[in-house]
Amino acid sequence: MTEPENLPLSTWWQMFDEYDQKVKKLSATVGDLETQRNQLKECYAKLENNADKLRTDIQKQQALVKEALKC
């Protein structure tokens, strides 16, 4: 293998360009992951909200059934 100090300048630029492209791709991936994380947080909040509403409605229904059975 060629020693780094013996590489031609064009090879260094090519290596730098490849590295730069990888960094850009990783940066874009991080942005996509952050967007997905935020979407998941929003979905989680909606699910929690729906679960709370469902619990409340079930409790109301159970109370109505108990009241109806007393009669």
TrEMBL record:
Coiled coil (UniProt feature): 16-64
Domain of life: Eukaryota
UniProtKB keywords: Coiled coil
Record-given protein name: IP05782p
Species name: Drosophila melanogaster
